[in-house]
Amino acid sequence: MVEYFIPKWEEIEEGILYIVEKMVNDNFIPDAIIAVLTGGVIPAKLIADALGVRNIKYIDIKFYKGIESRERKPVIKAVYVDNIENKKVLIIDDVADTGETLDAVSNIITMYNPSLVRLATVYVKPWSRKYPDYYYKILDKWIIFPWDKWEVVRENSQAPVDKKEKYLEILSKLKR
Ligand code: PRP
Ligand code: MG
């Protein structure tokens, strides 16, 4: 059975501030932020706002078909990136699991010749092939983020998340 870790918003906010403080202590203020769609969007928005960075680009990439089930490689769906040549860039995602997504995104971004690339995720799995420069915690469980709980419930109606009854009611109407 899959073991879940279900962070509350308070934990996410704490994690974001932990990461942002490290960046500020390092004197690292990026010129541009790359949000890894879709899970990285909310951490990217929170970190961007905390640092006062308005310049956010996006890479749309998908690796997981469901809980602990992946494609062979991450599939890059679209790249919404421009004007990062000679800029300091920060790539943000919610989690590094195998590390393949970060690897693929870093490779794409490097082709744009930024002056510096750093990586941040809220969580990282101990087995990840790539460790971000900034992360909050190392965790070995399947994480259900506040922003992907309904995706998880659609796959597993037994997933132990808040407000599930209301969502399942909505889902049954959606499927009619
Ligand atoms: C998840 C997560 C990371 C990636 C991490 O994204 O948001 O982007 O997997 O896994 P990895 O380190 O093994 O590559 P997913 O592919 O599920 O797409 P999503 O963000 O749109 O949910
Ligand atoms: Mg993702």
- From N to C, what is the helix and strand string? EHEHEEEHEEEHH
Q: Profile the largest sheet.
A: 6 strands, mixed
Number of helices: 5
What percentage of residues falls in helices of 4 or more residues?
25-40%
Radius of gyration (CA) equals 17 Å
User: What number is the mean pLDDT?
Assistant: 97
The count of strands amounts to: 8
Unreliable spans are none
Shape: globular
Strand content: 25-35%
Strand order of the largest sheet: 4-3-2-5-6-7
Secondary-structure-based class equals alpha/beta
Ligands: 1-O-pyrophosphono-5-O-phosphono-alpha-D-ribofuranose, magnesium ion
Through-space gap between termini: 30 Å
Q: Can you describe what's shown?
A:
It is a single chain. This protein is α/β, with parallel strands linked by helices and 176 residues long. It has 5 helices and 8 strands; from the N terminus they run βαβαβββαβββαα. It has helices at 9-25, 41-51, 100-110, 149-155, 164-174, and strands at residues 4-5, 32-37, 56-66, 69-80, 88-96, 116-124, 134-138, 142-143. A 6-stranded mixed beta sheet has the order 4-3-2-5-6-7, with helices on both faces. Helix 1 (9-25) crosses helix 2 (41-51). Bound molecules: 1-O-pyrophosphono-5-O-phosphono-alpha-D-ribofuranose and magnesium ion (MG). Magnesium ion is lined by residues 36, 39, 93, 101.
